[in-house]
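Q: Give me a backbone?
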Amino acid sequence: MGLSYLFWVKEEEEATSDLKSVSYVTFPRWYLNFRLEFKVTACMQMQIMANTTQLDDEQPFHFPLTNSEVLPDPSNFFSENLLSSALPTNSFFQNFVLNDGNIQEYIHPYLIKPSDSSVSLCYPSLSVSSHSMHQVFTPDLTITSTTSTPSHHVISSFSDLSVTLDFPSSNLTFFLVRGCPYVTVFLSQHASFSITSIHKISSFSSNASPIKYTLQLENGQKWLIYTSSPTIFSFSLDMKLTFSNISSDESPLMVRIAVMPDSSSKSEVVLDRYSFCYPVSGEAIFTKPYCVEYKWEKKGLGNLLMLAHPLHLQLLSKDEGNVTVLKYFKYRSIDGDLIGVVGDSWLLEAEHVPVTWHSTRGVNQDSYDEIKQALCKDVGALCSSKIGTALSYYYGRSIARAARLAMIAEEVGFLDLISLVKKFLKETIQPWLDGTFKGNGFFYEKQWRGLITKFGSDDIEEEFEPEFYDNRHSLLGYFVYGIAVLAKIDPNWGNKYRSEAYSLMEDFMNLEGKDSKSKCTRLRCFDLFMLHSWDSGLEESVHGRDQMDRGEAVNAYYSAALMGLAYNDANLVAIGSTLAALEIHAAQMWCHLKMDDSKCSDEFTKENRLMGILWSNKRESRTWFAPLAWKELRLVNHVLPILPITEFLFSNVGFVKEVVEWTMPCLNRDGVEETWKWLVYAMEGIYDNEAALKKIRELTSFDDEEGNSLSNLLWWLHSRRGHRDHHQDSCN
């Protein structure tokens, strides 16, 4: 798999070598990087496969087994046939399998809440203030079995885009597919269910049709109910509708329920037309670099109607796939309007984001001496015995910080320092891989099937340990970056620990499905419908999943792609690059709030340039660790760590200027520390390099403990020259 990739890289190296005497103006660095990216992408397109963790004939490495004392029991809600596979720990339906399983989740366009023998549907309204936005849950309709004693639901099947809820004793099955305007319910023969509402029912009619019914609620909502065959229904005085399956051929009754998104008769015509075709599951498939293909398994007659959120529409290929966009058929959503798309297969194409070890445009050679002086100080201070923590998150950041020094030294030609960094990386990474790290370590737990740490397995009070699989990609991303760099500068070490390295990476990068023998769940943190990662893990919340650390999410997939480069694994390069590009698109779509944006309410956008906490069902200005006024710390969550790929996360120079002007006044408040000033100045350097350098040189603290270094900061600023011209299109 790696041979053809090596061929391309070798050819490019030779081409680059031949051009060393040519002037920079004639062949700028971005051009050479583009040529390399083009050839690598062509190779990846031929080689991309579903499995990113294939190691030829090598046996996979397994971290020591452990049983966690704090994790919830998955057997309460997953069907027995699923318990033999790795289970999702950050999925869109996670609330359904935690504690009592009765907290709502947002499955576009509805909030859905299971309870004993019932499921409540809500077409949510939006509550807005200057500091938060959230969708309000109200049980607009509740579907309840009438044929059994109350019992909780069971997850009988799930996929990237769907989950199936069974109520075995009630003979009810709910096919919940993300982006489906209908909720589809199967009712077994001779079974029945009732529909009630918290609102008064204004009217109910069968529209002179034996398979379509209209339910008008006092709050103004109009719901349409479609059945696969004629059914018996009754409407009682206590506002309860009851439907019964009277089929004589033992076939289940299929019922589809949809709210009218508006009062237009055209919307009802659309819902009528596509009511006979329904999805039961949906998969996201990686067919080529920077692309994701959605494929739904459908049943019934006709074409499939689904809903696309704004990022889907931005990336949806108009050239491939037989899809039709219904621009005027739309549902409201906290994520923006959900637009109707007809077609059972979509192709989403992300912009290409080059994954490189070094800056894409090169460092200004006049700055080499200043950077080398900083490198001498930063590398000279490296000492593995002086890392004052055994917490995996902070320890990983120390590893990644040192690894950046090696790449900066390589880029500016200060090769003598690399051996010192290599020694530090071996001393810090190796004990985590071979199980000799004192006080902590990685373990594989057998319930949900994934990596946790020693601290996380037995101490729920230990902050920043992944005891509930939270922030998994953020934590492991730092380790993967360090491993990738060490494998690059010491290939012998890389080959020796390749199996361990892949086992670590696979915990959040595995692409195999639930039916495979893989020891980890599929893309543990990445949401293939929203196209970004979540942090939450096995923690329930009425607001669903949450994400705060956008920069660390990009780093995780960027680092995985670098590991692919280090190991000549074109497939891993392709998958990591694709996920990093999608993460960047999603951050720019939902978390970068330009002044003229309409993605959030005017009230919220007026006060915020950057999102604080992004929930699946809520938006907040705040972060977990800082007051609202500390805007510079919100910037931390969006930027760090600073890497070559960061410039693509913040490619819109006009927006960067808005962010700096929004953040800069916070640096004048009483008691503000120098610790984070450098980050604001680093962003300022994108459009005003000289002013930023002057401010940086006056600082004495660069927050080394948080993973940054003066060397990395100077590298960033001195590689911004020409950045504005390079990204002119993004600025317009």
User: Anything to note?
Assistant: The mean pLDDT is 87. The first strand starts at residue 65 and ends at 66.
